[in-house]
Every structure is written in C-alpha cells, then in structure tokens.
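Researcher: For the annotation table, I need structure tokens for Alpha/beta hydrolase fold domain-containing protein. Please keep the output clean. Sequence:
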Amino acid sequence: MTPHPDPSPAVHPGVASTLRAGLDELGRIMPTDLRTLEDILEYRRVGAARTTTAAEIATRLGLSADERTDVPACPVTVFSTGRAPAARVLFLHGGGLIAGCRFDGADVIARHAEALDLEVWTLEYPLAPEQSLDAMIDVVLEVIASAGTDVPLVLACQSGGGGLAAATVIAARDRGIHLDGQLLVCPMLDRAERPSTRQFADSPAWSAISHRTAWSHVLDGAQTLPPGETPDLRGVPPTFLDTGGAELFRDSILDYTARLSAAGTAVELHLYSGAFHSSDCVLEDAEVSRDAHRARASWLRRVIAGDV
C-alpha cells in the first residue's frame, strides 16, 4: 500500500499589516537560520549591540534599578518603585537560551511595576552551549530561594526564557518549592514539529533551523526534558500564556495550554491574530501589542489578589 503523503501545511495566515514593517526590519538586522557556533556568536554580537541598559529601563519607567549582591547564583538586577512590593516577579529573558542578556525584554514586566507595585528581578542565567538546561534550572532555583516568601512570587519570561521558566516551575513542583504563578510570553516549550512550525519555518523572528540548533545545544548532556515534552504536568501553579497567530511556537503553546488545563492548572491563554513572535517588543505601540500588555497586567493583578 502506498503511504499517504504528509498533509500540506495550513494556509499561512499572515502578519497583520500594521506589524509587517517591524518584521521586515527585524529580518534586515538579526541573523537568521542559526546552524553553527559561529552563527550563535554572531547572533549574540548583533543582539548585544541592540540591547538596552538598566538605567535606560529605569528612567523610562520611573523606577529604581539596583544590583543584588547577595544572590550568588547569577547577576540579578531589581527594578522597584521604592514602595513595599505587592508581588515579586522573576524575569527570564528571550534569545532561544543561546543568546541575550537580562535587560532584553525586561520591560515586558517592568512596565507594570508602578501600577501594580511589583518588584521585578531580571536574571542573567547561563546560556547554551556553555551550559545545559539542567544547569540553567539550578541557577534559577537558587535565585528563587533568595527571593523570599513575604509576597506572592511569580516566574515570568519571554520566548526562550519561557522554556527555562516552565521547566523550572516543574522542577520547583518536584522539590516542594512554592510559586504563585508563571507568566509565559510566547514561550519556547518543545521540539515537536507542528503546522505552525512548517508555516513559519523561515520567519525572521525565529526560524525552524534556529529552533532545532538551539534545542540541540540546550539539551546536550541534560537529563531534563523540554517542558512541553514533560509527561506529568499536575501540580503546576496558575499559568498565563500568550502567542501570536503568526509565529512558529503557536501550536506548541496551544498544546501546552490544553495539557495544563487537563492536569488541573488554572490557565489563561491569549492568541493574537496577525502577531509574530515577540512582536509586542518590536512594535510596542501597535494596538495588538497594547492589548497584550493590558492582558498581562490584568492577570498579574488577579494573581496578587488571589483571584486566578
């Protein structure tokens, strides 16, 4: 019997017209299709030239920025309002777990600090290929242990940091460490090929080739599975997830949401039509980006109130 051919990818839904210029610009600036260590180093170099600083973030958002000298696991910068915090949020930056620094995307959370009385810790966790996922998780768990339990504690992330955040939450569950929630912004959760992986395989925001390369380094020598491939998701704290309709991670995020919900986790999901991967950071003032900012703030407010 002749086997049936693989089903064709679904029709590309396309990027919203108001976001296309931002995606085109990203494609002109950032390297794509990372295959080798040299490609990763160049990706890091270009990203570092585009990043911001703690002082710039603090000035723009009206916050103070301080370095924690009592957290030995990794460098940690704390953005705060100067008031007693209503919650403490630990942020893990994007970059596919192979690139980036703690200030990349930190304002995804820090922009809400003033309105919600948040204390935002942003972490310089180790990267692959220098370290594996296991070592990254250990570092984040050490920072969690330093963060205290005096106020609600949430682990938040963007993109590649989402794989680390979700894996750390599972490790924390297994070790009896309490977290009040996880906020996963367009997280990188697994290696499975799905329709969205094929639809957006050549996306300038993050390609399928870069995705495979990143996971191969992150998991080299690691015992831990990517969170989306972890079979038992029971006991995970309340979770917020969002994704663009036009990004490679879309279907893995939708699948993870369904599995968390089936395992009994209180889950909130937002799927933004026409948004590409991390488009709210590229075009912060686009209407769909503003909607994403509001949704995250609303969820955090409800976590603080114990209403999720």
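Researcher: And a one-line annotation?
Model: Residues 232 and 263 are 8 Å apart (CA to CA).
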